């Protein structure tokens, strides 16, 4: 049977049928038509509107693919990873210096904070085109119209959910921008979230679950709605939706795909393989971005390049260069097609490599104790044929960390990684250097269980929270937890084990920080309560407050990230983080170009002293 998967190239990269809008900072949200077609003759039927939805999906694809993909910034500004490119100044290590409104905020060599600002509004514009013009279109029936409208609501909510947890109060653009505007104003994030809930409540009822893979489904709407409900304190609403989703989409608990016949693999390799994401029997995947070999418009994932350590500089104990990535190595010592070739952009922390893998995870297929699932430089080989020619004793032996290795090289070149998540074959390349094309999960049923666990936690139902965690844990082979084991730490630990590179880790930490502050619930993990008042610290340009007890995000990251909490430094920078980095700086270019309105800057960054009260009613 031919697998039917939506190819984004059919519309996104065939732009003769789509009005494309430019999101550059110099003309923020100013449209720039790149097609001789006009909206009036493009957005007239279902096919035309789907071209705008495909553009939204294209932005999602860019977030998770390519060199220095934006998703890395979400990892690096959290507890699970730090910037690993220690060979230059500029990357986001000393966050006090690298995250400033007028810094380069959209660069592979610095940070992708600015990418999120620009591209979120780009995708929102595409969604608003659909929403604003839907009543002028001609459709096969009401169901088709409602499905397309609901999918547009999802895409708009998907990016606003990110924005309000990355930048806080932001302009809420609810209509298509048809001409240059310079009168935007920041809107209260809680008001935005309430609007998103209303839209997604409708979408959840009107978008079907049976959609072409790569398109927004009912369950995808449901997962995003669960997150928004939890953010708003509507925990029962989140639980009801979660129960409905997992009833229709059970976890994959038995081996499947052709991977099950491969040596040194397990269920986790199956679940995260290219084959699994193409397999229509996979009940767990709820929302995907679709990219795969030989499909025009697909992007190279480059997961191996960005997430694996840079071992090319690791020398033999007697000081010789011992590693090559060429194709003339002996097959048994070939590295590219076995692991990939990394440059260490996202360096895993001790928390992710060690702390979360306890005795209760000894049998966990996702964890470091399973050496089929996890790999390290010590699993690779000195493979340079020159060593063999010289008769060097280390040829073919496993790599050894040199005690004299520099701090820079230790950070970038020597750490473990979850091989089952990062390995992507590249049949289009002769050497498989960095990671080929692959579909990726945006949402899975596993995360639904973790969200349900969290909703129970906020309600004080620790026994039920444990039950939900255990659905995911026991599938992976970990020991079950009891009610007495439950706190916010156990939930975040489980998210880290299950959702590496899938979740926007910084966003979820920030969402939890807001929930603690909004509810006033005692954070038993740290033994303190938080408040919405002064959540980002006292403010003031360059305040760089490093005082615990202000917000949960800072407390958690500082407690768990050994680079930020120990002041690890090398010749280019010292790793630093401050309280106000829970929220990111709004790019100065967006604020400065907005001459007839006020886009507020976040507390702790230069320009916040010019803030004004935010809008509490969404302008139509």
What does this structure look like?
- This protein is mainly alpha-helical and 620 residues long.
- It has a domain at 209-297 and 439-505: Serine Threonine Protein Phosphatase 5, Tetratricopeptide repeat (Alpha Horseshoe), CATH 1.25.40.390.
- Helices cover 39% and strands 4% of the residues.
- It is built from 23 helices and 8 strands.
- Helix 2 runs parallel beside helix 6 (142-166) and helix 6 (142-166) runs parallel beside helix 8.
- The radius of gyration is 24 Å and the shape is globular.
- Mean pLDDT is 91; it is low at 1-37.
Distance between the termini: 48 Å
Bin the helical content: 25-40%
Number of H- or I-type helical stretches: 23
Q: pLDDT under 50 segments (min length 5)?
A: 1-37
Q: Tell me, briefly, the overall form.
A: globular
Provide mean pLDDT, rounded: 91
Number of strands: 8
Name given to the CATH architecture of the domain at 209-297 and 439-505: Alpha Horseshoe
Widest β-sheet, arrangement of strands: 1-5
Structural class: mainly alpha
Indicate the proportion of strand residues: under 5%
CATH topology of the domain at 209-297 and 439-505: Serine Threonine Protein Phosphatase 5, Tetratricopeptide repeat
Text of the CATH class of the domain at 209-297 and 439-505: Mainly Alpha
Largest sheet composition? 2 strands, antiparallel
The oligomeric state is single chain
Radius of gyration: 24 Å
């Amino acid at each position: 049977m031919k697998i039917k998967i939506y190819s984004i190239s059919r519309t996104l990269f065939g732009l003769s049928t789509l009005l494309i809008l430019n999101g550059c900072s110099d003309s923020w949200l100013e449209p720039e038509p790149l097609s001789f077609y006009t909206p009036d003759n493009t957005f007239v039927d279902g096919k035309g509107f789907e071209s705008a939805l495909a553009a939204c999906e294209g932005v999602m694809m860019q977030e998770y693919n390519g060199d220095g993909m934006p998703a890395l910034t979400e990892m690096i500004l959290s507890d699970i990873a730090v910037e690993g490119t220690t060979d230059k100044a500029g990357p986001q290590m000393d966050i006090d210096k690298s995250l400033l409104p007028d810094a380069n905020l959209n660069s592979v060599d610095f940070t992708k904070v600015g990418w999120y600002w620009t591209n979120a509004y780009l995708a929102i514009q595409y969604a608003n085109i659909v929403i604003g013009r839907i009543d002028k279109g001609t459709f096969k029936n009401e169901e088709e119209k409602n499905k397309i409208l609901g999918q547009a609501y999802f895409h708009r909510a998907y990016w606003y959910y990110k924005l309000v947890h990355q930048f806080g109060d932001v302009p809420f653009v609810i209509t298509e921008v048809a001409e240059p505007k310079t009168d935007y104003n920041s809107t209260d994030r809680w008001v935005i979230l309430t609007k998103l809930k209303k839209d997604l409540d409708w979408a959840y009822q009107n978008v079907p679950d049976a959609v072409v893979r790569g398109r927004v489904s009912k369950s995808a709407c449901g997962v995003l709605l669960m997150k928004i409900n939890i953010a708003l304190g509507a925990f029962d609403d989140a639980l009801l939706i979660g129960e409905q989703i997992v009833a229709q989409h059970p976890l994959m608990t038995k081996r499947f795909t052709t991977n099950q016949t491969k040596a040194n693999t397990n269920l986790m390799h199956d679940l995260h393989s290219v084959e699994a994401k193409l397999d229509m029997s996979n009940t767990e995947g709820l929302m995907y971005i679709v990219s795969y070999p030989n499909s025009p418009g697909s992007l190279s994932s480059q997961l191996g390049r960005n997430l694996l350590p840079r071992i090319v500089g690791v020398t033999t104990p007697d000081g010789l260069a011992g590693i090559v990535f060429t194709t003339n190595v002996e097959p048994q010592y070939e590295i590219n097609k076995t692991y990939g070739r990394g440059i260490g952009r996202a360096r895993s922390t001790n928390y992710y490599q060690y702390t979360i893998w306890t005795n209760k995870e000894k049998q966990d297929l996702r964890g470091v104790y399973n050496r089929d699932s996890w790999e390290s430089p010590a699993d690779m080989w000195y493979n340079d044929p020159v060593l063999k020619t010289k008769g060097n004793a280390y040829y073919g032996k496993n790599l050894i960390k040199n005690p004299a290795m520099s701090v820079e090289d230790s950070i970038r070149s020597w750490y473990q990684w979850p091989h089952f998540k990062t390995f992507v074959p590249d049949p289009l390349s002769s050497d498989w250097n960095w990671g080929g094309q692959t579909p990726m999960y945006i949402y899975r049923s596993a995360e639904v269980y973790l969200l349900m666990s969290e909703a129970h936690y906020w309600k004080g139902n620790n026994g039920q929270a444990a039950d939900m965690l255990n659905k995911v844990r026991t599938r992976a082979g970990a020991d079950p937890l009891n009610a007495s084991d439950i706190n916010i730490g156990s939930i975040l630990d489980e998210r880290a084990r299950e959702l590496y590179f899938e979740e926007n880790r910084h966003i979820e930490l920030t969402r939890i920080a807001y929930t603690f502050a909004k509810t006033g619930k005692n954070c038993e993990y740290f033994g303190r309560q938080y408040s919405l008042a002064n959540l980002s610290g006292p403010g003031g340009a360059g305040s760089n407050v490093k005082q615990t007890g202000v917000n949960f995000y800072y407390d958690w990251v500082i407690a768990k990230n050994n680079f930020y909490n120990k002041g690890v430094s090398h010749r280019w920078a010292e790793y630093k983080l401050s309280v106000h980095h829970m929220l990111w700086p709004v790019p100065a270019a967006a604020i400065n170009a907005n001459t007839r309105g006020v886009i507020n800057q976040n507390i702790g960054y230069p320009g916040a002293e010019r803030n004004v009260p935010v809008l509490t009613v969404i302008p139509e």
